[in-house]
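Hi, here's the filled form for the chain we discussed.

Project: internal
Contact: R.S.
Residues: 368
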Amino acid sequence: MKKSIYAYIKRSTILLFLGATPLFFSCTSTTPDPVSTTPPTSGTVTTPGSGTTTTPGSGTTTTPGSGTTTTPGSGTTTTPPGVTVVASVAYISQKDNLKLLNAAITRAGLATEFNQSLITIFAPSDDAFRAAGYANEAAVSGAPVADLQRILRYHLVKSRIDQSAMPTQVNTVYETALADNQLSVYKNSMTDISVNQAKIIQGDIPTVGAALHIINALLKPASVNTVALVKANTSLSLLTAAIERAGPAVSDVLNKSTQNGYTIFAPSNDAFKAAGYADEAAIKAADPKVLSDILLYHILNYRAFAQTFQNGADIATAQGTTLRVNASNGKVTLLGKGNGTSVANIIQADQAASNGVVHLIDRVLLSK
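And the returned structure, exactly as it came back:
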């Protein structure tokens, strides 16, 4: 009897152990879901009145005439399948039409800065360097190091931005690696993007941690503000006198440094004479309020380079009313509300200042 009870207990114990075995082996390892490596955005763009928030590339977006400034987030560039991504300087050194840029980086000692991650490089082509006066690699290698450092840092934005992240049909201001210097980007479409006075001719080139866009003009940083730039031009001496006569209402604006900057349509001396201001004495005798109203009608509260003006657009001025822009075949004309059918031609465009851009025009614009 004792033996049968013992056998029963032994058999039950074995069955109990075997029954528990599946529970023991069911504790298996699970591979976690992939984690997104897209970097977080650095800010947002709010569309006024829409109640929605979007996150394009980093920079400051200014809606022309609205005075609204928002800060978008950083964009990323997707590497096409089969493309081998190399460091930025390595790519530049291998590219046939970037030999002068490579020489400039070497001369300036900026290889480390150009190989950083999370940056955007606007890379001037060899033709761009030649057009700016650098005939060959020897000319670049003989240029002052400090000058090249300023120029090259003006072509770097400290966030990675692909073309799709650039807002469409608004002037977008980006801080560059050169302190207190911004550049302006305007995108009509993915194949028509302006960077200051340059155009992107090949974009979205991925390098290690960076985005690279080849442009057709060398971007030159400015060292003086708009007032100093006007004063330095002898063909604008009557405009200089008018700014002084108009007083703080105008001079305070043009001397101010802002993120978005200013655009000045600067009437030449001949333009002032045609408008009835024969000389500086006539300017000094004019009513300051009248001159202030006239001059503010020649100012936009954001940077706008000539190739970004849209044909038939009415643009808001610092004076509060609009003027009409017409652009065709590279020619830009302006029409004030008080000018009838007589347009002003931009005769010298894209004079860059530290706080804006100046365009010389051949007629005084009248708001009424």
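Let me know if anything looks off before we file it.
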